Amino acid sequence: MANASEVCYDNIGCFSNAWPFWNTFGILPNSPEQNGITFHLYTRINPTNDQVLDPNGSGTSVMSTNFNGAHKTVFIIHGFNGEIDDDWIKLMTTALIQYFDVNVIVVVWTDGANDNYFQAVANTRVVGAVIANMIKLLQRSGGLTLNNVHLVGHSLGAHVAGYVGEIITGMGRITGLDPAGPAFYTANVKVRLDSSDATFVDVIHTDGVLGLQKNMGHADFYPNGGKIQPGCLTDPIAPVYSCAHMRALYYFIESVNPDCKFTSELCQSWDDFKDGNCESCGSGCQEMGYNLAYNADGEYYLRTGQKYPYCDY
């Protein structure tokens, strides 16, 4: 780009629109303040009433919350048009705290995510940098260890998680829930989520239009082939593709329950899966979702139910 430019913000550095960041057509990210980035902590002590964390705060501010550095910490990151009151965020937070004694931190960036789509794409880089600062603060003051960090991002939020992993090496796990496709189809790996962004990266693909249909993690899951989901063609509320795009969220939420199993077969393609040409479950099966074993590696396929509970197939 001949007229490459950049913007710089306090505490997080500078952002250029030079290669490889060409996927926003020259749009640069807005400031943290313009993105309205906030962090909301939930634990078993405060399962419904959040405690707000300041990424630029002091160690004292962390110590005054219920954050427990000895526990696993799960960051939930929404995508385009996401809001803190979205039902799926509440469901995911509740499920995680019900089944596991974890810190759940919901990252909200509604102001930056409700803008023009390509502006929102650009904003993901700033959101990732601010999350990285929060993680560093929790390391310094809260006893957080990187192997206990699990970033869960939906759509654009999956790429936000990737940027966090670019900044902080050694992150424990990133789960991409149908990572956004538009503006990322041909993007360099530095611009999108990929397997180098954490010690373990798993991806659930559910939508062939809004989602990115390519292997991006150590383990990539393609329920029902990964392009359209059962029940979405007849969904009276959500358009067919937004229904499939959102379904990754609900598969993951259900998977938090250890009794709700999404058994998946290691396979080369959806056609091979349908034809029964995959590895047997003796050596080639994994449980898609939260309780996935970190030794998963490759492409996995499975069928789900068309309505809740989706794991009951």
Automatic annotation (TrEMBL):
GO molecular function: lipase activity
Main location: secreted
Keyword Secreted: yes
Localization: Secreted
Keywords, in A-Z order: Secreted
Record-level GO cellular component terms: extracellular space
GO biological process entries: lipid catabolic process
Gene3D superfamilies, alphabetized: alpha/beta hydrolase
Boundaries of every Lipase domain copy: 6-310
Pfam hit, one: Lipase
Family stated for the protein in its record: Belongs to the AB hydrolase superfamily. Lipase family.
Protein name: Phospholipase A1 member A,Endothelial lipase,Pancreatic lipase-related protein 2,Inactive pancreatic lipase-related protein 1,Pancreatic triacylglycerol lipase,Putative endothelial lipase
Species name: Mytilus coruscus
